[in-house]
Design a protein that fits this description.
The chain is built from 9 helices and no strands. By secondary structure, the protein is mostly helical. The radius of gyration is 15 Å and the shape is globular.
Length: 152
């Protein structure tokens, strides 16, 4: 079975998250595109770019673990998506450890953190929400051993 193309993965991700908006009220697909493009800009290959498109799909319950297991994706892409999927009640330390233990996942998470931490995105939120999220992203970067405000 041939793996899905990046265009097909993008289409699946956009359809799965259709109607969903981020905390800023923007179509959620804008975040997915930013993470996929951020993975590419950081030197990620097709497997990491595909994972960027799909990184929130299981966590947000728009696609299932069964879908992921059966999807025409490489084992590496599936592993990265799984690593980036937070489990209910999971401590951040366990989440970070799984990302660090999964080849290719840190690059995609860096792209995710960079977009989530963007000063332009945080500036459109109310101050308490922006401060809470900025602290959350700083903590995750620290747990992942990343330097710099954008997770780069």
């Amino acid at each position: 079975m041939e793996n899905l193309s990046l265009a097909e993965v993008e289409q699946i991700a956009r359809r799965a998250h259709e109607g969903q908006v981020d905390k800023n009220g923007h179509p959620y697909s804008e975040h997915l595109a930013a993470v996929a493009h951020g993975a590419a800009e950081r030197g990620g290959g097709e497997e990491q770019i595909a994972a960027g498109w799909l990184h929130d799909a299981i966590e947000d319950d728009v696609l299932t673990r069964e879908w992921l297991a059966a999807a025409a994706l490489s084992d590496r892409t599936k592993a990265i998506v799984d690593a980036l999927t937070k489990r209910p009640g999971e401590p951040p330390e366990e989440y970070a450890a799984r990302i660090l233990a999964t080849p290719g996942a840190l690059l995609v998470k860096r792209a995710d953190l960079a977009h989530n931490s963007s000063p332009a995105r945080l500036a459109t939120l109310d101050a308490p929400t922006a401060e809470r999220l900025a602290a959350k992203y700083r903590r995750m970067r620290a747990l992942l051993g990343l330097e710099g405000p954008d997770g780069a």
